[in-house]
Write a structure and sequence with these properties.
single chain, about 400 residues, alpha/beta, 8-stranded parallel sheet, 15 helices, 15 strands, globular
Amino acid sequence: MATPADKLWRNARLATMTGGGPGIVERGAITATGDAITYAGPEIDAPDAAEIIDCEGRWITPGLIDCHTHLIHAGNRAKEFEARLEGATYEEIARAGGGILSTVTATRAASEDELVASALPRLDQLISEGVTTVEIKSGYGLTLDDELKMLRAAHQLGWSGRGINIFRTLLAAHAVPPEFKGNADAYVDLICDQMIPAARHEAHAVDAYCEGIGFSAEQVDRIFTTAKAHGLRVKLHAEQLSNLHGAALAARHGALSADHLEYLDDAGIAAMAAAGTVATLLPGAFYFTRETRLPPVAALRAAGVPIAIATDCNPGTSPMASILLAMNMGATLFRLTVEECLRGVTCNAAKALAMDRFVGTLEPGKSADLAIWNVTDLAELVYRIGANPLHARIHAGQ
């Protein structure tokens, strides 16, 4: 006689996100033993379990994944937001000591514990909406010690008792710090010679901001070559404000994802498709900065490039900690379908973090990360604004 599973969630409607679609199973069930799913399919075929949970016809999806955040930072830039509403330009704010460097100043002054404490409410907001996996970038320290401090703070969040998977990304190439003003190449030297080697045990990946106001393609190429030499995967902020062909560069390095992509061209799309690089769209930043150029969703779709959606939670351009709102924005602003939005925060988001062997779908062997919803139709998860229909969130079977 087979040993029963630990838990059985029955009387549910499943969106397994398998098989290239939503993977819907009516009258479905899931079993888990320990932290892993052992069965996901029709209830009639489900094995026995020691504990049975009646889902009363609710929908179950994989735990949601926010695959692009800047959750760790000190301070906020609400005053800058107010100044922009009153007519100040970004350049004027930056010259007055605002912009990203104001966040750098605040983050450098904060202790590791203070960074954790300030990030917890943002993390808790994501968790309250069914998120079980979060990517967190550094990038507001811009010194060796401060970048490592941010990565350690992100690591602490994973051990905060919240039940959350944390993917940590070194984004030292976020901006040129003031002490290297006019000498970006010297700062890239520091990133390659000291920061990446020191972060190889603290980070899972390396990211960079490839823009005219950030780093050139040549500088990013050097950073990525160094990252890969130290066993780290790469991701890239690309084609947000202009087309520096960063997405194609990222694809050549086997990047997990290229993110933003409003100015992505056909060559970049083809390169991403060939490399399997995920296109991570960030509608919160598009909305908050009042951009008008849409990412080429139809072309990405036609080329078969996996599309993910994320909050881009950060203090300057996307102060948003709602994955449900990010899905709604993806649909309303970028014209993604409901299925694309759901895949964008589950299976495709998992690919963007190289975690698709462990999370992102409901199937045996994956972590028992589930979100159980008080909705009658999956479209409600994308359709509603300012509503949170989460009934229960399960992480690793608990």
